Amino acid sequence: MAMLSNIVSIVENNWLLLLVGQYPNGPLGGIAATLILSVLGIALAFPLSVLFALATLSPWRVLRWPVMGLVYVARGVPLLMIILWVYFLLPILIGANVSGFSTMVVALVIYEAAFLSEVVRAGIQALPRGQMDAARALGHSHLGAMRYVILPQALFNMIPSIISQFVSTIKETTLGYVINVPELTFAAGQINNRLLTQPFEVYFILAIIYFVVCWTLTRLATALESWIAWRRSGAGNTAVLAATHAVAAES
Amino acid sequence: MKGFDLLAILTNPSFVQMLVHGVKMTLIIFAGSWLLAMTLGVLLLALRMLPAKPAEWFVEIYVSYHRNVPTLVQIMLWYFGISSLLPNGLQEFLADHNGEAVFAIVALGLCQGAYFSEDLRSGLRSVPKGQWEAARALGHSYMGAMAYILMPQAVRNAMPALINHTVSLFKNSSLAMAIGVAELTHAVKEIENQSFRVFESYLVATVLYLAFSLFLMWLGERLERRSRMAGTV
Questions:
Q1: Interface touch A174/B72, C-beta < 8 Å
Q2: Do B77 and A81 touch (CB under 8 A)?
Q3: Distance CA B214, CA B13 (A)
Q4: How much is the pTM?
Q5: Which CATH superfamily groups domain A2-250?
Q6: What is the mean pLDDT of chain A?
Q7: What is the pLDDT of residues B135-187, one digit of tens each?
Q8: For residue B21, with 0-12 CB atoms within 10 Å meaning exposed, 13-18 middle and 19 or more buried, which class applies?
Q9: Contact (CB, 8 A) for B183 and B29
Q10: Which stretches of chain A sit within 8 Å of chain B by CB?
Q11: How far is A216 from chain B (nearest CA, A)?
C-alpha cells in the first residue's frame, strides 16, 4: 500500500516531466519526444524501405546487392552499435555538431528502413503471381506494374505490419538513453536521480507507460489485421477493388 | 584525426585482453539468457495448455507485458528497481558477484521467454488436429502424444521464428552495457576512450557482432533444413 501511494505521488509530482520533459525551459522530452522520434523514424524510413524493397526485387544486380548487404548488417548488428556509429560519423560527414535527437532519428531511419524493406518485400511477394503477369500482359513496364498494380495492393495489406514496426520503433527509442537523448526513459532516469530512494516505483511507472502505449497500438494492429483478412476473403471484395482504383487514379 | 590503423588496436595486449573479455561476457549473457528463455518458453506453453483459465490469463499477461515494454526498460527495472527490494544480504552478495550480469541475464531471459513461448505456441497450432487424434487413437498418453508426436512437429514449424528471435536475443545482449556489464559494446567504448581510435574500435565490434549473427543464421538454416520432412516445402 505504501508503494502504491509512492507511485501516485511520483506521478503527481512529475507528470509534466514525463509528458514533455523540461520543455519549454529546456529541450522537449518525455513521452512527447519518444512519440515524435518514433513517428519521424517510421515516416522517413517508410519511403526509403519501399525503394529498398523494389531494389531487392529488381532484376538488376547493382541495385539488389548493396541493399541486401544493408539488410544483413541491420539484422546482424545491434541497434546500439548503429547508434554509436551514427553518433561518431554523422558530425564528421556533415561537418557540424549534431544533437542527440537527430542522431537518434538517423540511426532509427537506417535500422527501420532495412527491417521495413523486408516487410514490404514479403507483402509484395505475398500477392498472387498472376497480378504481375496480368499487369505486364496489359502493357505495363516492370516499374509501371509495381506502381499501379502491385504496390497499391501490397501496401494496403501491410498496414498491420507497419503498425507493429512502429511499436518496435517506440521500444527502440529507449536506446537514446545511452547517448543522452531527452525522451521518456531519460526523464525517468532524471526522476530516479532526484528521488534516489524509490527506484522500483520510478521504473515501474516507466514500464507501465510504455506498456499502455504499445499495447494499445498492438491491439489496433490486430484489429486491422482481421478487418483486412475479412476484406480479402471476398466479403469486401468490391470495396477493395474500388479502393485500389481510387489509389491508382490519384497517383 | 589519426590515419586508419587497425593494428594499433589488434596488437595492443591490453586492448586485446579487453576485447576477449568483452566477447566472453557477451557470449555468457547470450547463452545464459537463451537457456533461461527456452526453459521458460516451454514452461509457459505448458502452463497455457492447462485446463485452468487463471493459468491462461497469467501467461497472456506475462507475454503481453514482456512484448510491449522495451527490453532496456525491463533490464533497468530489474537492475535498479527489483534489486532494491531484495533482502540486504542477497543485494550485497550480488554486488560482489557480478550482479549486473546476473540481472541482465534474468531480464533478457524472462523477456525472450515470452517470445519463445509464442513461437512454440503458433508452431503447435499449425500442426494438423488429426495428428493429435491419431496419436491418441494409437494409444499414446497425453504426455506421450505431446512429446513424441506433436512437439517435434511444433518445433519444426516454429524453427524460423525461433532462429530470428535467437539472433535478436544475441543482439539485445548489447543492452547490458547500459547497466555497466563489461560486454563487447562496453569493452569497445572503453577501448575507444583510451585509444581515441573510434573508427577502428567500432569496426572491430561491428565485424564481431555481424560474424556471430551470420553464424547463428547459418546454423539455424542448417538445422531447419535437417529437420524438414521429406516431401514438404
A1: yes
A2: no
A3: 28
A4: 0.90
A5: MetI-like (1.10.3720.10)
A6: 91
A7: 999 999 999 999 999 999 999 999 999 999 999 999 999 999 999 999 999 99
A8: middle
A9: yes
A10: 72-73, 75-81, 84-85, 88, 167, 170-172, 174-175, 177-178, 185, 192, 199-204, 206-207, 210-211, 214-215, 218
A11: 9
Helix (H, G, I), strand (E, B) or coil at A102: helix
Burial class of residue B48 in the structure, from the number of CB atoms within 10 Å of its CB (0-12 exposed, 13-18 middle, 19+ buried): buried
CB-closest option in B71, B185, B217 to A81 = B185
Nearest to B175 by CA among B42, B36, B59, B69: B69
Residue of B68, B80, B172 with shortest CB distance to A210: B68
Residues A64-76 pLDDT 10s: 999 999 999 998 9
Cis peptide before A24 (omega within 30 of 0): yes
Question: What's the ipTM?
Answer: 0.91
Identity at B206, one-letter amino acid code? T
Q: What is the pLDDT of residue A251?
A: 47
Average predicted confidence (pLDDT) for chain B? 93
Say if B21 is an interface residue toward chain A (CB within 8 Å): no
Going from the N-terminus, what domains does chain B have, and what CATH number goes with each?
A: 7-227 (1.10.3720.10)
The rounded distance, in Å, linking the Cα atoms of A73 and A82 is: 9
For residue A226, what is its C-alpha cell? Answer: 482481421
pLDDT at residue A25 is higher than 70: yes
All structural domains of chain A with their residue ranges:
2-250
